[in-house]
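Aim 2 progress update. The chain analyzed this quarter is reproduced below.
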Amino acid sequence: MTTGYGTKLIELIEKNPNEIARQWCRDVKTNAHTPAFHNLADEVLIPMATGFYGNFREMFTTEHPFEAAKKIFGKYAEERYEQGIPVQEAIYALVLMRRHIWLYAEFQAIFVSAIEHQQAAESLNRTILMFDYALYVITERYQSLIRSGIRRKVGSIQMLIPGGPIRAYHHLTLGALLIGLVALIFFAPAALEAVTLHLFYIPIVLAGLWFRNGGIIVAVAIAALLILGHALFLAHEPFVNDIIRAVMFCFVGGVVTKLKKGLIETSSILRLRERSNGQT
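Predicted structure tokens:
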């Protein structure tokens, strides 16, 4: 049940949500602790505050403040996360919303007598309790969203890293591509034009992504086959172009292999971070 002093504070907020929100907006756009809010338009920021002030009565009077906090501040956390706002700034922006309630109340002098000041202190205690729940809910929700993001990133990276039942598919695909290239080199050397030779990069890139050091091994093998095929069937033509292509095959194979190692390291880091977040 709402007491008289609580009703006075709630009524003040409900009558003046836009004015309090505008004061908060000016503050959060210039505060050194909320740089992520500085470039947001007033049309984006003010509804954040008016939405909070519009729910103030429900949070203040409910018999289940934590459940109300989960509903209201869980949504607040999700929206700020989607906007790319760091958790510490999202929390501090909320602290500023609370501060501007009391700054506005003091400006309007709604608590004048000594008794009313004592009542104001009791209102403040209730408001602090609400915000204690808010901080917990926002932090927990941010952690949950971060963990979900990590799982998606790890899943995307795992698509490029061998293992599990798809390993046999990798072998079969790469084997078929290499057989096709060998057939081109030894049975249709005249077809090895510049456009056709670009197809040679496909097995090099796939091998680099699917197998450890696969990019380098396949690139060297294809380069050797290309030079051998030239020596056997096109010896009357200059070797320069095919030598340059062979060098490029090896270069691309080395780059893809290095990128693959970076993907593996990133995957390991993301998994460790996910385990760490799961234990907190």
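Residues 164-279 form one domain. The chain has a mean pLDDT of 76. These observations will guide the mutagenesis experiments scheduled for the next reporting period.
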